[in-house]
Amino acid sequence: MARMRGYHRSRAILSILRHPDFFRIPLGQTRDLLLVLRRMKTHIILKGFAALLLFSPLAAMADDSPLAKQMEALDDAFKGFRKEKDAAKGAAQAREAQQALIRGFGETPLMLTKMPDGPEKETAAAQFRVMMAAVLVKLCEAEHKFLTGDMAGIEKIVADLKDLRKQGHDKFMEDEE
Asked: Which of 45, 67, 129, 160 is 20 to 30 A off residue 22, Cα-Cα?
């Protein structure tokens, strides 16, 4: 099998593997076969890494906007306080979520930047800010509930925040297909 390339090499390998006496192949041919298989595996792995390096910047660009970064920080803080039992830690995480939301308040969602200028775009931007303000109010209520020790109230606020997040994502995020 020395000096075989491409299609012919793979056909030779397949014919050896299909052979009924595969386990009786002389040791020298088995070594050749294993070397060829090892080389093929190495090439496949290298091509896979090349494809990964080629396409990873494209995926990273989609979530690199300032708004996406702030929403990720908000989501991390939200995940932290929604199950928090310590009132002081929960209040701190609610404040952290508020700060992330405030930093992202002036940003525009990617979906709105793609819209043509006009009254529809302005209306959609105003609706976005109204929803962001509603989330901010709920986060302030969560901080207040933590500070007063009303843990039952936190559960209702967490449910409300989940609903607001779903509504906002449905309205202001494009479907990834």
From this structure: 45
